[in-house]
Write a structure and sequence with these properties.
This protein is of the alpha/beta class. The chain is built from nine helices and 15 strands. A hairpin with a 2-residue loop joins strand 11 and strand 12. The two termini are about 40 Å apart. The model has no long low-confidence stretch (mean pLDDT about 95).
């Protein structure tokens, strides 16, 4: 069976997805949605003149028969577009964040339960070989009990290289970038986030309206994490160090090293194998597994690893981080989200 896909949004990231979907053997795009008059030209340059581009989602839903929707519109529209696709009987995969608030995320999940259609969030970082390897080392107990972690992410992402909406919003780094890292931390540590203390600022030369840099202290049920991220470095660089009772794990997302306490030198670790394509650089990193998960959810009813019920934790961490920055205090995640609270 080929999964028929309706893609919503063909901006910068959306154009990446057009090519990624085009190259997947089990997914076929049957239509695209974007109000930009130039969107049709962009899509047709990538996939040919037969591509059909609609100016709005309602027109597309009424004209094409699809099994799933891929939502790559600006973040403020994610919850609305996901809800309308679910109402139309489609499975949904959407870029993060799948909602800007926990309240909106709960509404989307209520629609998931009411329609019985799956929803997964495109947390592609999880499927990078380095991320799977770190998780495997921790699961195997290679460094014993974990005490703390330090994650630093530097990016050279001037706003003119991104969608024009990104420069205008509040908390672009926290909401659009750090959310990926918070998901990775949950995945690696296997623990529930309990609190966050965050501070957000703009460099003097920033071309963003607000919040191009973030620093935060997070607690994951007793494991402390120091986090720092910026969109305005002069280079791209990533570093994660996880400190355990018996050793240290370090990765720059390309390589993974392990050092036993008492040893002078770290040892390189062979990366876990992932489906071909997951090891590719941005923009394709981890996307093969995401599309495989969407296919399996549609065809077999399989529960995606990055399903919405799990991913709402990421929405809660980010919203709590915004509250922490605004109010100058540590914010318990339970103020925003608890699974047993309606």
């Amino acid at each position: 069976m080929t999964v028929k896909l309706l893609q919503v949004g063909v901006g910068i990231r959306g154009s990446h997805w057009v090519k990624i979907v085009r190259d997947h053997p089990d997914i076929e795009a049957v239509g695209y949605v974007d109000p930009d008059p130039q969107a049709a030209d962009r899509v047709r340059r990538l996939v040919g003149d037969k591509a059909t581009v609609f100016p709005d989602l309602d027109a597309a839903l009424g004209a094409v028969k699809a099994d799933a929707a891929l939502v790559v519109s600006p973040s403020a529209l994610h919850a609305e577009h996901a809800t309308r696709a679910l109402d139309a009987g489609l499975a949904v995969m959407l870029e993060k964040p799948f909602a800007l608030t926990v309240v909106d995320a709960r509404r989307v999940l209520a629609k998931v339960r009411a329609t019985g259609r799956p929803l997964l969030v495109a947390e592609n970082y999880r499927y990078r070989p380095s991320e799977r390897t770190v998780r495997q080392l921790l699961t195997d107990g290679r460094i014993g009990r974990v005490d703390s972690a330090t994650l630093i992410d530097r990016r050279n992402m001037l706003s003119h290289t991104e969608g024009p909406w990104l420069a205008k919003i509040e908390y672009p780094q926290l909401q659009e970038i750090a959310i990926h890292h918070f998901d990775s931390l949950r995945y690696w540590l296997g623990r529930t986030p309990t609190s966050i203390t965050a501070r957000v600022w703009n460099a003097p030369w920033s071309d963003y309206r607000h919040g191009s840099s973030t620093e935060a202290l997070l607690d994951f049920e007793g494991i402390r994490v120091q986090y720092a991220g910026t969109m305005l470095s002069k280079r791209f660089a990533f570093s994660l160090t996880i400190e355990g009772e018996d050793g240290i794990i370090w990765t720059d997302r390309k390589r993974v090293f392990w050092r036993r306490h008492g040893s002078r030198l770290p040892r390189p670790v062979r990366l876990v194998k992932t489906p071909p394509g997951d090891e590719a650089k941005y923009p394709r990193e981890g996307t093969t597994s995401l599309l495989n998960s969407l296919r399996d959810a549609v065809e077999k009813g399989a529960l995606p690893e990055t399903n919405g019920e799990d991913n709402i934790w990421n929405v809660a961490i980010v919203e709590a981080g915004k509250r922490s920055d605004r109010e100058g205090r540590t914010v318990p995640i339970a103020e925003l989200y608890a699974p047993d609270r309606a």
